[in-house]
Write a structure and sequence with these properties.
281 residues, alpha+beta, Muramoyl-pentapeptide Carboxypeptidase, domain 1, L,D-transpeptidase catalytic domain-like, 3 domains, two-stranded antiparallel ribbon, 7 helices, cell wall biogenesis/degradation, cell shape, peptidoglycan L,D-transpeptidase activity
Amino acid sequence: MRTGNWVRGMSAVRHVMAGAVVAAAATGMMVYGLEGTASSATAAPAAPVASTDLKTVPFEVSGELPIYPKALWSNGATSPDVRKVEARLIQLKLLDKRWLDASFGTSTRSAVKKFQTSKGIPALGYVDQNTWDQLKAATREPTQTELFPPPPVVNGRPLDPRCATGVSLCIDKTSRKLRYVVDGAVKMQFDVRFGAQKTATREGGFSVGWKSRNHVSKLYDSPMPYAMFFSGGQAVHYSSDFAARGYAGGSHGCVNVRDLAKIKWLFDQVKVGDKVIVYRS
């Protein structure tokens, strides 16, 4: 009997304690709200926050915002007027002749910056009216020959006009000749052969992407010494097979040279970025 009374007593205590917990929770919800903040009905007004406790991020504009002059010609522009700008920059020796192409690229932009700096005007890198006025004052009107240098003529046949300026490997598939041309002057000429019908040498305007003196083709496991790559895996290089068999064979798309002494010399002259023009005359 005592044991039963004790159990019933403890049960009653547990019920009383549970009720107290529920009541306390309800009171808390009424006072502080569900999110733990004081209810507007019962909460005391919050103490004012001192202004020194607030953190602000300063923002101000000093002076006037710069207003840039309107660009007449800028990076990416292509027009006959750009060619005139380039021709005048060439007169001042600020731009290489190879970039006389009527296209406003990074080399033209660099030359414009140099000119602007020399005149004490902002080096914006594009041609505004003030820059154009000063450039005209510092140069003369370009001649037709300066604007459109005539292509060099070799053996009575003109080279591709793209070979008239700068440094280029001018490769004629019709005459099977490679000519190393500098500012329209042919410095050396080479016999060359090209790819077979299924692996034709690509035609167009390219540039030397990279060079490899003792290159070996991973695809064909064949030596390609003095290789100057211009279009993917296609390159100008020495070919012992061409030296031995002549035009009886063909390449896998490369431009083969058979004169070892000449291509050694050419390899040392050519720089990455030089033009490669493959065409038919």
